[in-house]
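Crash report, auto-generated. Payload:
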Amino acid sequence: MAPMVKSTSRPKWQRLPPKNVYYYRCPDHRKNYVMSFAFCFDREEDIYQFAYCYPYTYTRFQHYLDGLQKRNMDYFFREQLGQSVQQRQLDLLTITSPEDKSDLENSVMQKKIKIPKLSLNHIEEDGEVKDYGEEDLQLRHLKRPEGRKPSEVAHKSIEAVVARLEKQNGLSLGHGTCPEEVFVEASPGTEDMDSLEDAVVPRALYEELLRNYQQQQEEMRHLQQELERTRRQLVQQAKKLKEYGALVSEMKELRDLNRRLQDVLLLRLGSDNLREGAEKKVVFITGRVHPGETPSSFVCQGIIDFLISQHPIAHVLREHLVFKIAPMLNPDGVYLGNYRCSLMGFDLNRHWLDPSPWAHPTLHGVKQLIIQMYNDPKTSLEFYIDIHAHSTMMNGFMYGNIFEDEERFQRQAIFPKLLCQNAEDFSYSSTSFNRDAVKAGTGRRFLGGLLDHTSYCYTLEVSFYSYIIGGTTAAVPYTEEACILGGSPQAWASPHPAESIQVWQDLTGRSGLWSPAW
Ligand SMILES: [Zn+2]
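Recovered output after restart:
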């Protein structure tokens, strides 16, 4: 974990380098961990600000909602559900298709979904994997000037030198014979001593040169063998790379195709289920009950942005479901910069059992609405998700409830499993189900006890700091941009909500759809 800093001359929030941040157990704080950091205030006139995580203020939230309201979307409604102790707004958003769905339905169903051709010959087309075949390698590695092999060229040049020397040698002997004859004649014991005397110096030179020449030829042969061996190895590696590249591309194609098919299937299923008088299926999302947990707001904004988007999945979700979102349950705490409490010092996420209208008005308001919906026979509360941030764990993960009914317990585990499959930063292994006394009074625990077996209640936790992708060890810090732009692979978000929905249907056979928009 590394805190953030910004200053007048550097107006963008940045994380401090982790090497300047230290953690130690402090004896003055009952041996709890204390964080300290080194920081150089390099400009005297600057005003510096520090934060635990990217801030997300009440004002920013209000501006964001004002902006959405101005867009006049007929599937987005904003209302004031109540007020905080200091008279701040408790906003409630409803995202669902308007009653008259025919126009929207047509626009969704007429959208043609193009299914990509499954091409196995794409490698050449897209040029991602180049053909480093054997032929090519020869051309690349053995450039032959004037069509000759390099060894030939070398041979020729050395031979020419030797021949020239031999010729000179022969001339100095005054015989004018060919080199072979000179060599034979010059051999000891085959010539008379006088002529041998005359030839001693040039012949020794000649023999030296001949030895050098033979040595060079030997080295050349050796080098050629080495070169040949390297070439073969390169060819083999290139072949392997080519095969690997083809596999990767094929997998990518298949995954894309799968997603498209799911979208098509989803739209078809959607048309079947558009019937008059169907029960309203509600997904209820709350955030920022703990005001210091700003990632909660980033995730929540990502969800809202997706749900109001023109993505075909967002269309279908709006057709099938009613999303009720209370993104900021503790506006006073957020405004005042509290970490965990409300204005009056209450941890609101421990007062779901009996919230007071004057001490916990926002919680009271939301709870009343949920109970009202629960009692409405036309409404089915399918999901309740409360979004938090975690200061010591990495990735996103969930807390769920424990039920005596094994089947219900198993069903509850499906959603986090789907998230794990679809969001690379979500961890099922960190997800846990509990009934600790310390968590009594939380939204998830209270509603899990109140609602019937067809509802699912979770706490979604997101790391304040970073995530680790399966199979790797490096922690990737979350950034402000990544978490809002759901769809980016590094988002606090699943880029492929369609998969969740499809698998969800396969596993449960339920028509109630819910997809993580993050
Ligand atoms: Zn929390």
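Post-recovery validation: Residues 355 and 368 are 10 Å apart (CA to CA).
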